[in-house]
Design goal:
alpha/beta, glycosyltransferase, ten-stranded mixed sheet, 23% strand, 2 domains, Spore Coat Polysaccharide Biosynthesis Protein SpsA, Chain A
């Protein structure tokens, strides 16, 4: 089998250097490392130009995008390249997600053990965040009536050899490229957030997604709580609602839309959550754009935006 690694990077050269070094020191090298440079403005382009021309035990490919398309656009570009190649499996990760030395070797062994048939669309690792399992990275998504249930794997399940799930993130996802072709590309228009949930649910229609807790990736991002409104809040809410709409159906979409209106836009939001008018306007725009399915980068809520009073 031929294995590719797909990394998306933007202005995190220090992290990218560590990540590439980790792949240099694998017990089994990949056949290709593909780096999508999402129009970095630091020294990343120069570094990658040198890196691409250095000899290695694997092939190298750098694709430089003309503008920052967010993680969603970066992964979409990488999937598109690999889906038109002769590689069999791709390990997908961020530029600050570090494999252990045996990660690729163990994933390839797992393919032979669990995915010899045609019914497995992806394998995925544990994601350790500062040494603790980041349970939001491996979940099960289901719809009962108008309600969506999006439940992380339990800590008890992290003791199992293998678990069936249907939601993974683009960190430590080892994806069968044949299944990826059938699932289509990640939704580039999401920019950030929920592209992996939407894609997972499509991928799960092509075959099983198996979570192997004993294989690990390290992604030390901290466990932040989303209680502060920033530019990212717009994309999180818009894309969440769109995912509910596309995969949960109209009842689930309307139910969640009503919940979010009450929590983030209505008078109770101002009273109980002390949200300002500017913040409530952001969430209102996110809801409007989910209803109309307006994708892409918003003209106001661009990277770096934050409310004037915060």
């Amino acid at each position: 089998m031929k294995t590719a690694v797909l990394l998306v990077t933007f202005n995190r050269l220090d992290c990218l250097k560590i990540t590439l070094d980790k792949y240099d020191n694998q017990t089994v090298a990949p056949d290709l490392i593909l780096v999508i440079d999402n129009a970095s403005t630091d020294d990343t382009p120069n570094y990658l130009n040198e890196w691409e021309h250095k000899d290695a035990a694997y092939g190298k490919k750098v694709i430089r995008l003309k503008q920052n398309t967010g993680g969603s656009g970066g992964f979409a570009a990488g999937f598109d390249y690999l889906e038109h190649s002769d590689y069999d499996w791709m390990l997908v990760a961020d530029d600050d997600a570090y494999p252990e030395t045996t990660t690729i070797e163990r994933l390839e062994r797992a393919v032979a053990k669990y995915a010899a048939g045609a019914d497995v669309a992806a394998l995925c690792t544990t994601v350790l965040n500062n040494g603790q399992p980041d349970r939001l990275q491996r979940r099960r998504w289901s719809v009962v009536g108008p309600k969506v249930f999006d439940k992380p794997c339990t800590l008890e399940e992290y003791k199992n050899e293998v678990n069936n799930i249907n939601v993974l993130t683009f960190v430590g996802a080892f994806i069968n490229i044949k299944a990826a072709k059938a699932a289509g590309l990640p939704e580039a228009g999401f920019f950030i957030y929920y592209d992996d949930v939407d894609y997972s649910l499509r991928l799960a229609q092509q075959g099983r997604i198996l979570f192997l807790p004993d294989i690990c990736m390290h992604h030390d991002t901290g466990f932040s709580v989303r209680n502060q409104t920033t530019w990212k809040s717009y994309y999180y809410l818009r894309n969440k609602l769109l995912t509910y709409k596309h995969h949960g159906g109209v009842p689930a979409f309307i139910f969640e839309l009503c919940v979010e209106l009450l929590k983030k836009v209505g008078p109770l939001s101002a009273i109980l959550k002390k949200r300002t008018k500017e913040e409530r306007t952001l969430y209102w725009h996110a809801i409007q754009d989910a209803v109309s399915e307006r994708l892409g980068l918003h003209s106001v809520y661009r990277p770096g935006w934050k409310p004037n009073n915060r």
